């Protein structure tokens, strides 16, 4: 396995998260327009249930069994606290992390999830394209419903390739 591409500068399309947050607030406060996908992780499941067909929802809803890992993950995240720091420059945030000798623009990665065609006709290629657009690394499942080649194209020139 070897890395064939190393990104030195932040992704050109990496989102300015502070500006995006302000955009969400402004749309909600001034125009009563809420984001399509809720920003409240506690409401995500309910929203998914409403919008997905039962086959798609049931595929993902239970985690891998009786939700033990999901619950452990939530508990782990609850241990982290946000510390507001005042009067700091926040326009340009650098969230880059180095993993296994490669630099990634985002500390979050899209975990491998198989058979994404169950959720949407755009399947893995759609998610890989959106991930690339946001500068978030996309991990392809071996149980992909789209081919590796198609996903590589959808993930674009800034995707990291591991072979
Ligand atoms: C519906 C579903 C499908 C998944 N498919 C795969 C898969 O094909 N390959 C894989 O390695 N992990 C698969 N996973 C496991 C996810 O990648 C796993 O939830 C993730 O690694 C856990 O990350 P977390 O600890 O950040 O929650 C799947 C998980 C779910 C819920």
UniProtKB/TrEMBL annotation:
<dbReference type="Pfam" id="PF01070">
    <property type="entry name" value="FMN_dh"/>
</dbReference>
<keyword id="KW-0560">Oxidoreductase</keyword>
<feature type="domain" description="FMN hydroxy acid dehydrogenase">
    <location>
        <begin position="33"/>
        <end position="163"/>
    </location>
</feature>
<dbReference type="InterPro" id="IPR000262">
    <property type="entry name" value="FMN-dep_DH"/>
</dbReference>
<protein>
    <recommendedName>
        <fullName>FMN hydroxy acid dehydrogenase domain-containing protein</fullName>
    </recommendedName>
</protein>
<dbReference type="GO" id="GO:0016491">
    <property type="term" value="F:oxidoreductase activity"/>
</dbReference>
<dbReference type="InterPro" id="IPR013785">
    <property type="entry name" value="Aldolase_TIM"/>
</dbReference>
<dbReference type="InterPro" id="IPR037396">
    <property type="entry name" value="FMN_HAD"/>
</dbReference>
